Amino acid sequence: MSITALKQAPLREHTRILGVGAYRPEVIVTNDDVCQWIDSSDEWIRQRTGIVTRHRAPRDVSVIDMAEAASREALDAAGIEASQLGAVLVSTVTHPYATPSAAAQLTDRLGATPAPAYDISAACAGYCYGIAQGDALVHAGTAEYVLVVGVEKLSDFIDNGERTISFLLGDGAGAVVIGPGDSAGIGPSVWGSDGSKHAAIRMNRSLIDVRDYALGVVTTDTEDEADISRQSLWPTMVQDGPTVFRWAVWEMAKVAQSALDAAGITADDLAAFLPHQANIRIIDEMVKQLKLPDHVYVARDIVDAGNTSAASIPLAMHRTLKEQPSLSGKLALQIGFGAGLVFGAQVVVLP
Ligand SMILES: CC(C)(COP(=O)(O)OP(=O)(O)OC[C@H]1O[C@@H](n2cnc3c(N)ncnc32)[C@H](O)[C@@H]1OP(=O)(O)O)[C@@H](O)C(=O)NCCC(=O)NCCS
């Protein structure tokens, strides 16, 4: 057969987000609860981060349970049957199995089999990475409808007594369906990474370390040290907060501006700003640097959700549309950034 006879998938000109769903676990953890575990105060946490409460999933609620609840709402809102999905992408860093993926199990639960399914490991940028990929798959004709989920059960990977990050993090899930649109609905993605800063937010040990401790391959100098190792065997998150803070404030406003430029719009054209909910001071600083006008609605879901990593932007989008339904169909700038370090941003039309 000649090469000229080869068919390629037909390109689609426009894509858009068709519907959004969310799941917020019922257990609420207050700053006073947190202060039983670390030397801190309600006032310090509010002033330095903006966080008042965060949600945690109970032991028997998994990443897949949360993802399923958010996905079902997103599918309903989009008016799409699970069987119509051409791909299922799950952004998470807290599914407790390296394989099989959360996405494959979620696809089965939803009744979307045999849709292709895979997980994305891009921490707090995971949702924006998922949008970049879902958008590209629909554009390229590889899939007609793509489910993008951001879900985290961070409470499984924190040590309550760890003062650099545990008080920031919460659990939850958000999901959207991407499909063809009549006009442009997702601007170009501006995304990237800087692995030279991989130690800025990290796990305190690898699963190989856990195995070696369990097998007694690693020996400690004293019995005290051995006790500490055994007690804190499980890998949990730690971070160098000020390094992340400076990087987020200085570098991420530039990425957000690039996403506006790539979309061919200015801050004046925006109706909403949906930044990753990492710290209210980072959000406020980005608002200043981007010179967002007063009419732009700024999502501050962090106040009662904390930082839910890959779930934070779709959760913020869901809440924004609940509180401000008139923003539906208007332009929003979204930006995610975090461990890797990685980042991703795009302008989208709100579903
Ligand atoms: C973690 C973070 C809230 C800490 O706030 P900060 O203002 O940078 O605080 P610093 O680490 O500089 O510490 C300032 C003081 O607060 C104290 N402090 C630090 N953590 C504290 C806590 N949890 N509770 C009370 N006090 C704390 C420090 O001991 C220090 O005290 P000192 O001045 O007496 O030495 C902040 O750095 C942050 O939000 N960084 C970005 C985190 C992030 O977004 N991570 C995820 C990215 S996706």
UniProtKB/TrEMBL annotation:
Q: Where is the active site?
A: 124, 276, 307
Q: Which SUPFAM superfamilies match?
A: Thiolase-like
Gene Ontology terms, cellular component aspect?
cytoplasm
Q: Which compartments does it reside in?
A: Cytoplasm
| ACP-binding as annotated region, ranges | 277-281
The record's annotation in InterPro entries points to: ACP_syn_III_C, ACP_syn_III_N, FabH, Thiolase-like
| Reactions it catalyzes | malonyl-[ACP] + acetyl-CoA + H(+) = 3-oxobutanoyl-[ACP] + CO2 + CoA
EC number(s) recorded for this UniProt protein: 2.3.1.180
Please cite one Gene Ontology biological process associated with this protein.
secondary metabolite biosynthetic process
Task: Please state what the annotation says regarding this protein's domains.
Answer: The last Arg residue of the ACP-binding site is essential for the weak association between ACP/AcpP and FabH.
Q: What does this protein do?
A: Catalyzes the condensation reaction of fatty acid synthesis by the addition to an acyl acceptor of two carbons from malonyl-ACP. Catalyzes the first condensation reaction which initiates fatty acid synthesis and may therefore play a role in governing the total rate of fatty acid production. Possesses both acetoacetyl-ACP synthase and acetyl transacylase activities. Its substrate specificity determines the biosynthesis of branched-chain and/or straight-chain of fatty acids.
Its assembly, as annotated, is: Homodimer.
Family label: Belongs to the thiolase-like superfamily. FabH family.
- The name this protein carries in UniProt is Beta-ketoacyl-[acyl-carrier-protein] synthase III
Per the UniProt entry, what species is this protein from, by scientific name? Arthrobacter pityocampae
Give the classification, highest ranks: Bacteria, Bacillati, Actinomycetota, Actinomycetes, Micrococcales
The gene behind this protein is fabH
